[in-house]
Design brief:
The complex is a heterodimer of chains A (280) and B (243).
Chain A (H helix, E strand, L loop, with lengths): L1 E10 L2 E11 L4 E5 L6 H8 L7 E6 L2 E2 L5 H4 L2 E4 L11 H11 L4 H14 L15 H14 L4 E5 L7 H16 L3 E5 L3 H7 L2 E6 L2 E6 L1 H8 L2 E7 L2 E7 L2 H9 L6 E4 L2 H15 L1
Helix pairs in contact in A: 3-4, 3-5, 4-5
Chain B lengths: L1 H15 L1 H22 L3 E2 L2 E2 H32 L2 H7 L4 H27 L10 H24 L5 H16 L13 H6 L2 H13 L7 H23 L4
Antiparallel strand pairs in B: 1-2
The chains are: A alpha/beta (280), B mainly alpha (243).
Chain lengths: 280, 243
Amino acid sequence: MIELKNLTKKYEDFVAVKNLNLRIEKGSFFGLLGPNGAGKSTTIGMLSTLYLPTSGEIWIEGERLTRKNTALKRRISVVTQEYSMRQDMTMEEIMEYQGRLYFVPARERREKTQKLLEFCDLFDYRKRTVRKLSGGMKRKLMVCRALLTEPDILLLDEPTAGMDALARRQMWNLLKRLNRNQLTILLTTHYMEEAEILCDRVGLMDCGKLEETDTPKAMIERLGKYAVDRMSGEKMESRFFRTREEAIRFISEGSKDAALRSTTLEDVFLEKAGKHLENR
Amino acid sequence: MGILTVLWEKWVEFRRDFYKITLAAMVAPLMYILVFGMGIQTVSHGQPYLNFLIPGVVALTTMNGSFNAIAQNLNVQRLYEKALDQVMISPTPLWQFVIGQIIGGSLRGIYAGVVILFLVLPIGTNLCFNGWSFLIMFLNGAVFATMGVVVSFYAKSHTDVPRFSNYVIMPMAYLCNTFFAAEAIPHGLREIIHYLPLSQASSMIRQIANREAFSFGGIGVLLVYLMLLMLMAFCFLYKKRNL
């Protein structure tokens, strides 16, 4: 279990994360959602020890996470938002370097590298330097690199950003499969569809604060399972209803050009974060 | 183990850029020797100036080789490629990472020095370079590799490393007992220059080259610099809140 206790991160006057308390159960798939600057990446940064919290603590399976706790760090892999790789190394060298940094034995390193690169359709490009890879290939390589060390916890900071639709689907399938094997995953993403499909629970962050945590289904049900979109002047407006009947009644009561659909996590996000943004 | 990982990374880099690294190590020192030593033929301390110049050039080549191998590379990895993030996140103890960089940088410095020694071999200067010379070259390289680590860690932009090189490394290369004896420098400045690491290294390498007894105090000075710079590097890695 990952426990964040009163976690705060300040950059001089700016508070990026405010008093964050969160528990993520072992083997769960947790999504952190929020607008740009909400504090998601800073939270991942603190979980990866790249940033030290200004105050508060992180505990994993009863052990406090610090930069010096190498045994605990061994169990965590991170896919950062930026392509954090040497541009002049080949894919093979990137994997080798990662394996060495995580003390993976040589034979295991070679076997897993081949397996992972083959799985992600990267094996034929293994001699190619990172500089010459497309954005999607770099993302896939970062995931391969993170999985090479067989972590217990995988931190993903917008892992599918820049991927095409097919590559994204492949990535989702891979992550789902990994999660089924008890890998704890913490994901930040701007794709609400991704969070809805993958995550058991999601947390909505805004201005460094965790506003709400729940299952995507419960959040959607709380807002109303059915959505009606209609144009109000030049603005698209959505209304939410608990039952289909209520929604149909609303449309039949005179809403022209209205469309009925199922509510999504994006609606929840827009309702919560959108209102906060409007109030800013 | 972590030290070996860094050395492996340095080896990959060295193997790939072998010709570039070798050529870069040769050009400037070769020019110094050709212009100052062979072009302008003078006598220093009763000996051909080349005998004075070569040990100085070897020391400064070691310095440049080590500093350049680490500073720019690590700075790019930290600020541009963000590749250093992956090291910070990994379970490799950060002190091992720093030690690996220092050893890797020192070896690159020694390599640059050895290239110069091979180049001056046909001149037949009768200078002596032994195990002590290589130990001093290694220590000198270690000091400047560590300086490279510290500068790259504290740099706020890509231009900070070349700027540091211009303000600190280049003046040292000319003033620290390399091209002329530090005694020629006015009092006040002379004492400061005397205690700079390159002054100590070039003096010791020159004394050994001329088969004179050298002062072990110089090794002590280099070790003090090494310790202080290592402390700064460790403070950054373990204490800095935002890498």
